[in-house]
Amino acid sequence: MKNFNLRDFGAGIWERSNRYQRIAIVLLVITLAALLPFAGASFLATPVAAYDAVLVYPVAIFVLMSLGLNIVVGKSGMLDLGYVAFFAIGAYTNGLLSMHTGLNTWEIMPIGIGAAMFAGVLLGIPTLRLRGDYLAIVTLGFGEIIRIVALNVSWTNGPNGISGIQMPPPILGKEFALDDQKLFFWVVLVMILLTIWMIRRLTVRRPGRAWEAIRQDEDAAELMGVPTLKYKIWSFTLGAAIGGAAGVLYAAKNLFISPEMFTLNVSILILACVVFGGIGNIWGVILGGAILGYLPDRIRFISDARLLVFGLVLVVVMNFRPDGLLPRKKREKAIVKKGVNA
Amino acid sequence: MFTVFIDQFWQLTISGIALGFIYVLIALGYTMVYGVLRMINFANSEIFMWGTFGAIVASRDLFGYDQTSEPAHGAKLALVLFVQLFASMAFAGITAVVVEFVAYRRLRAKGTNRLATLISAIGMSMVLSEVMRLLTASRPVGSPRILEKVILVEVWGAQIRLDTLITIVAAGAIFIILERFVKLSRMGKAIRAVSMNEDAAKLMGINLNRVITTTFLVGGLATGAAGFFYITVYEYTKFNIGFTMGLAAFTAAVIGGIGNIRGAFFGGVSLGLAEVYASAILGTQWKSVTIFIVLVLVLLFKPSGLFGEAVTQTRA
């Protein structure tokens, strides 16, 4: 462990490569990821659920949400325990709009993202002034409130949920189908790539540096002239936007949503993905989301004790590797000029 | 909408105070730990939940009561209730010490960031609630009726039942004992010293680990006692009751000013009343929403709580 470090190894390859080699690496990784749905017959096969459906949800959507939550928890160091709220808002936007209007999934997407961002700002402005553990409790409550509201008001159909959500319209002449979810996986993959791209761009620029400063020492950041509240709200809202997008996709994939899908456990699970993989490091977070999303379907025999195992994993990983499986570099350089052309 | 509230005002007030006293004891668990560690003990809600099971284990397995048995009377009643209270406090106290040992101690020694500690505590609270879920097969567990719920007196149309009276008197007594313990005892002095200045306390020869363990133990005992009163009044528990009760009690602690023991008392009672009144006016399904809104409003306008404790910024 001391001599070999997977993150440094990967970063080393990347830093030694020239521009063309880097493009080749990126294309190779994207191709491998895009070919994943065809690997269903190999050792990756899931015994009970359909393999390509598992790849969409939980795996890909968990990865997407982990990336979003990582902006809030990993990049700017604010503990958000109610991330499921934004996921639910996205999903319900899709459900309600597709029930009452003729809009299709892609037209609903920006509205869903907007609704989640609006909720993020609304919750963020009063609460982001608070310190970490207070924020955690308030967001925890917020996540539950959204669920309770969805359960108790009449326009969401209460506990019965919303069924009959429209299937997304065909892309490039290819139809979406329930029994073949490869296309859906590729759509989520594109969302993940866009998110990674966005986070990488932001990280090396002003917002990213502001978040890093806030995470390390908020008071010092404020004294150095970083408008901390503004950038905290930005981070919170961006995370909310990605959660909302994941919610819209989830509703379109599942075609049915009900309040019991949006419990506290989802927030905790996504947080577990982020922490388990390596808080703050995009690749670690992706690894965490993929492993924790995939594992329960691969090993069904522990699925009843799944949350127990997660709890234990959280305690053990935090105690022995407080920075996760693939931790971020000990000292992230503030400006890495070379890393910009990623 | 308001008719229920007006008709039953005094009845609601009585049950609100009883509920409030339960909150006070759980809030003590949060406030004590916060005082020394400057950290919210996320597992406290599950410590409470384990405490409720302690009471059931005592009455069911120790005394052999089940759902069909007759309520106890006289000396037997006092004995069973006392053992139940003791079992609840023991369950919760031991759980709290285990939580400190497993989730906090190692990370505290390492001096890692607060986030890691917080997540480790969340993991511990998941473990506690999941273990109980698997043990009880996700089912609610009813408690045998030990205490006959006789109506003692009726004031202004409000019935004061025996269980409510016991809750208010005994919870109040436990609160006063703990408050005196922190104020007067040698250990209490050490706890207060650590919460004022950890480094200075260490230099004065205070054994930090022992103080922190004791704090968790005392907080756990209070939380466990709350579990016993919860069982006496509601006669039912489930692996997931900790969440709502914990959120409410935490809100109570914040209202009174977290880290402030007397504040927890007023916070708990006022939140208990607010919750019962809001349920009567809006309906019980909006109970948690009301609690949450109260919490956000307090944090917005008086983040230090009604009885003071600066909490908006991290202190060194």
Write a brief caption for the model.
The complex is a heterodimer of chains A (342) and B (316). Chain A has 13 helices and two strands.
Structure in words:
The complex is a heterodimer of chains A (about 350) and B (about 325). Chain A is mostly helical. Helix content of chain A is about 65%, strand content about 0%. Chain A has 13 helices and two strands. The longest helix of chain A is centred in the last third of the chain and has 27 residues, at about 230-255. Mean pLDDT of chain A is about 85; it is low at about 330-340. Chain B has a domain at about 30-240. Chain B is built from twelve helices and four strands; from the N terminus they run αααααβββααααβααα. In chain B, a hairpin with a 2-residue loop joins β2 and β3. The interface of A and B includes residues 142, 152, 279, 305 and 311 of A.
Give the tags:
heterodimer; A: 342 residues; mainly alpha; ABC transporter involved in vitamin B12 uptake, BtuC; B: 316 residues; two-stranded antiparallel ribbon; 12 helices; 4% strand; globular
Present the secondary structure layout:
The complex is a heterodimer of chains A (342) and B (316).
Chain A: H1 6-16, H2 19-35, H3 51-75, H4 84-100, H5 105-127, H6 132-152, E1 162-163, H7 182-203, H8 206-216, H9 218-223, H10 228-254, E2 256-257, H11 264-277, H12 282-298, H13 306-320
Antiparallel strand pairs in A: 1-2
Helix pairs in contact in A: 3-7, 3-10, 3-11, 3-12, 4-5, 4-6, 4-10, 5-10, 7-8, 8-10, 11-12, 11-13
Chain B: H1 3-7, H2 9-37, H3 44-62, H4 74-110, H5 114-135, E1 141-142, E2 151-155, E3 158-161, H6 162-184, H7 186-196, H8 198-203, H9 208-234, E4 236-237, H10 241-256, H11 261-282, H12 287-301
Helix pairs in contact in B: 2-6, 2-7, 2-9, 2-10, 2-11, 3-4, 3-5, 3-9, 3-10, 4-5, 4-9, 6-7, 6-9, 7-9, 10-11, 10-12, 11-12
